[in-house]
Amino acid sequence: GLRDRLKRFRSFKLFMDACVRCGACADKCHFFLGTGDPKNMPVVRAELLRSVYRNDFPLAEKIFKGFAGSRKLTPEVIKEWHMYFNQCTECRRCSVFCPMGIDTAEITIMGRELLNLIGVNNNWILAPVANCNRTGNHLGIEPHTFVQNIESLADDIEDLTGVTVHPT
Length: 168
Description:
Elements: H1 2-8, H2 10-18, H3 30-35, H4 42-56, H5 59-63, H6 75-85, H7 93-97, H8 104-117, H9 123-135, H10 143-161
C-alpha cells in the first residue's frame, strides 16, 4: 500500500523525504499542547510513518539500516499508528507553519489509509458505512421507520404551530 501511494502521490513522496525535523509545527498542534505527548507532535506523528518508509524504500537507508531510525512494520508499530494517526483532526495548522511546506495532515491521511488496507479501523467510521450499505442511510434507519419519523415530525409541527404539514 505504501509503494502504491508513493507512486500515485508525488507530494506524499516529497513529504516523506523533505522534512528536516525542525519542530516548527509542534507548538501549533492542539493535541500536542493538550496532551504533552511528544508523539502527538506533527513531526513525530509523521515520523511514525517515515520510519517504516525508511526501512523499505530509499536505497541509501536500506544499506545503512539502523542509522536512519528505520523500523519494520510490526503489530506494535500498527498499534502506535492507530493511536496517533486517529488523534489528529487534520486541521492543517501544522502545515501552515511548516517552513518546508509539508502537509502533515496528508501524511496522517495516508497513515489512516494504510491502516484501513490491513483492516485496522474505528467503529465510528465502519458502522455508518455498513449502515449505508444495509439501509441506504448512515443512521441505519429502515425505510418504514424513516416514514414514521417524518409523520411524527409533521404532528409535532402541527401541535406547536397549528399548521398542518403534509409530507409527500
